[in-house]
Write a structure and sequence with these properties.
Shape: globular
Number of helices: 5
Pfam family, one: Acetyltransf_1
InterPro entries: Acyl_CoA_acyltransferase, Bact_Acetyltransf, GNAT_dom
Largest sheet: 7 strands, mixed
Order of helices and strands: HEHHEEEHEHEE
CATH class: Alpha Beta
Strand content: 25-35%
Structural class: alpha+beta
GO molecular function, one term: acyltransferase activity, transferring groups other than amino-acyl groups
Number of domains: 1
Radius of gyration: 15 Å
Number of strands: 7
Helix content: 25-40%
Domain N-acetyltransferase: 14-157
Protein name: Acetyltransferase
CATH architecture: 3-Layer(aba) Sandwich
Amino acid sequence: MREGLGCSAAMSDLRIQRPDGDDALKDWQFVHNTIIPTHLLSLEDVRERAQRHHLEVAYAGDELIGCSTVRPPADDALTVTVIARVLEAHRGQGFGEELYARGLSRARELGAEVIETVVLSSNEDGLRFARKHGFVEIERYLLPGDSIPWIDLRLAR
């Protein structure tokens, strides 16, 4: 956020878009890799994810502030995963709320009956955000080679 701007000024300058080229994909990659340093993605990984998932990247003016992922239902399951990530310097300013609301709307467009999210257990801000929005923990696990558990959470109805 630019010096001297309040939250409302920054929010009016918020731009959220699907990545439309390598520069925007690299921005999405940067946010992901910064917030999830245990699972770094290459640009090729991000390109592949952009084919399977609905990715968005968020800017306040020209400044990168976050990204989101909506994983559509797999097979016959009507479970959609919504993930909103905001860089630490931009948390607590409403950006996560906007990213989450957009992801939730997209999940409902996809016919979601169950909405889940996943958070790295070391991301206390992310866990607090998920719980504040009605998510409850359903599973904790380690991926091969990881030492920090992942937490799957489900939106309670």
